[in-house]
Amino acid sequence: MLSRLLKEHQAKQNERKELQERRRREAIAAATCLTEALVDHLNVGVAQAYVNQRKLDHEVKTLQVQAGQFAKQTAQWINMVENFNQALKEIGDVENWARSIEMDMRTIATALEYVHKGPVQPAST
Length: 125
Known about the structure:
By secondary structure, the protein is mostly helical. The protein contains 1 helix and no strands.
């Protein structure tokens, strides 16, 4: 009787140990699956962040190049406008010079006419 009770007790203990071991393995398997799922989810986010960072780096480089080109083009435009402005000033100077020469030529022409015709005689009455 004692022997049978001992055997029953040992059998129940073995069943509990097996059940506990099976549950422990299931828990480990579930924890492993959960960990892998979390890591996979995290890796997807990290991978996406890495891809986004590479895209941003590329865009920054492109923007820097374009900004440099725009600065050069702007400097060229400014130089062209300054040259144009200088040319307009020179045209204004030439125009003033031409007016001055024209006035001098008229004065000379009037003097030559006067010399050519002689002094104007007063009309006799």
